[in-house]
Specification:
Elements (H helix, E strand, L loop, with lengths): L2 H4 L5 E13 H4 L12 E13 L2 E5 L5 H6 L8 H7 L10 E2 L5 H4 L10 E4 H7 L7 H4 L5 H11 L3 E4 L2 E5 L2 E5 L8 E7 L2 E7 L5 H5 L10 H13 L4 E4 L10 E2 L8 E4 L4
Parallel strand pairs: 3-4, 4-5, 5-6, 10-11
Antiparallel strand pairs: 1-2, 1-13, 2-3, 7-8, 8-9, 9-10, 12-13
The protein binds zinc ion (ZN).
Length: 269
Amino acid sequence: MSEARTAAPEWQVVIVKHGTRSTTRSEAFMNHAFYDEPDGPFRLDYFFWVLRDGDDVVIVDTGYSGAEGDRRGRDVLVDPIEAVRALGIDPLAGHPVVITHAHYDHIGNVAAFANSPIHIARAELDFWTGRMADKTLFAHFGDPTTVEALARAREEGRLEAFADHVDVAPGVRVTAVGGHTPGQAIVEVQTSEGAVVLASDAMHFHEELEGDKLFQSMADLPLSFEVLEELRSRPVAHLVSGHDAGELARHTPLGGALDGLAATIGIRR
Ligand SMILES: [Zn+2]
């Protein structure tokens, strides 16, 4: 047995910033006028995450597709699939892919991982195939082209819908929490720095957590506040947001081909 097999899992978390957008505080926060504070410029970044432990890889979210980026006027700083390749990872190698929720900016390139098991909460799948999915307030955030990719994954036996939580690898637990979307998931990862929680859009910005202010679009408001409470109560080394423009600066720059666009938590052993 090699040491890597017997040792406790110790993942490196690579945070990749693939997009960015300038907006306003009143657009970013739901009912911003209630807070009695001035409006102002606000930037949000778009991330996905790559977990590595030796040769083991888990992909968490896939960013938005070039087509959706164009349609919505979003810049693409680096194509997420090119970023994956730049990390020395073949997207066709069959590494597990976690989709934290089915919004366009998280699921957009799922088709590129054509040999991977795709892990997504059952509640999320049910919602996007259910009768509420075409309501504009929800559909605005969808990417219809990904429906086909999920159907193909299902046909090929690669779609792994989980109920409450699933360990996609030792030391990588995905838990459905809901709130932002009905099956929004968070990912807890064991690293050399301790436990790390990738909150994804259960916490878009750290200000959402610190100020108890919700993002513009949340499917279930009371549950969203409960999820923030739960995140606050977790004793973790790092809580990583889904869209905070300050997120990369909180961590160690990765350098290399993704210089300026990626940071790391823990080291790859
Ligand atoms: Zn998002």
